[in-house]
Amino acid sequence: DQRWREIALISPHLARAVIASEDQRFCLHGGVDWSELRDVLAEEGGPSRGASTLTMQTVKNLYLWPGRSYVRKALEIPMALVVDGVWPKRRIMEVYLNIAETGIATYGVNEGSKRYFGHDASKMSTTEAARIAAVLPLPKKREATIPKGFTRRYGNTISSRIGVVRNDGLDACLK
């Protein structure tokens, strides 16, 4: 039972956490972070990490298929440019937070918050938001409730970066 949550009903810690962990330049680029994409493609031995922005991830989750392929990326990039040109950043974030997979058969941060923490996303603390953001890249393999190893360390890093996102105005486009 997944219900859509307006971004105003989701803790601002959560948007800051996903900006901190997934796309620090979210408010600055036009859907594709070209400098990040160039850096990843220039890595020796091929890309070791992704260069998808939150807009690109939203497009992939909404319109395309999972998995890594050049075909999907070739479709994702122009679609992200169009979405970013048509939707305000606040809408992109709202859609992303509502459709992101947060666990096995769990979609949206509100459902993830209820599953892991027993309350809706409006009440998420900084730590809880960071834990949800830490599981987003691999929601079927990472645990938000009692994180271990990398997920715990990464969640702690995200938690500290949430203040940087807020203080440096990296979430200004969401206001």
What does this structure look like?
This protein has 175 residues and is mainly α. Helices cover 54% and strands 3% of the residues. It contains 8 helices and 2 strands, in the order H-H-H-H-H-E-E-H-H-H. It has a two-stranded antiparallel sheet. Strand 1 and strand 2 form a beta hairpin. Helix 1 packs across helix 7. The longest helix has 19 residues. The model has no long low-confidence stretch (mean pLDDT 93).
Q: What labels describe this entry?
A:
175 residues; 8 helices; 3% strand; globular
Q: Quick one: overall form?
A: globular
Ends distance: 29 Å
Largest sheet: 2 strands, antiparallel
Strand residue percentage: under 5%
Question: Can you count the helices?
Answer: 8
> What is the percent of helical residues?
40-55%
Low-confidence stretches: none
Widest sheet: strand ordering? 1-2
Rg, nearest Å: 15 Å
- Count every beta strand, where a strand is a DSSP E run of 2 or more residues: 2
What string, H for helix and E for strand, traces the elements in order? Answer: HHHHHEEHHH
Mean model confidence by pLDDT: 93
Structural class: mainly alpha
